[in-house]
Design a protein that fits this description.
Helices cover 34% and strands 35% of the residues. By secondary structure, the protein is of the alpha+beta class. The protein has a single domain, classed as Alpha-Beta Plaits, CATH 3.30.70. It has a 4-stranded antiparallel sheet. It is globular. GO terms for molecular function: metal ion binding. Keywords: Metal-binding. It holds the Pfam family HMA. This is Heavy-metal-associated domain-containing protein.
Amino acid sequence: MSTTITVEGMSCGHCEQTVEEALQDVPGVTDVAVDRETDRAHVDGDADTSTLVDAVENAGYTAHV
């Protein structure tokens, strides 16, 4: 399963890395690609969408599907 999440508040490479690491820590995630230029995170795996959004928000960013 592939999920695309809109992430608001990323302004630099460190922000991308923080969001990527937060998503990679979610059980069931197999791959993550974060792009601050498009404000999107593409996540592969079988993790629940609400868990992914929660992980991004716990990292300090606004997220929605």
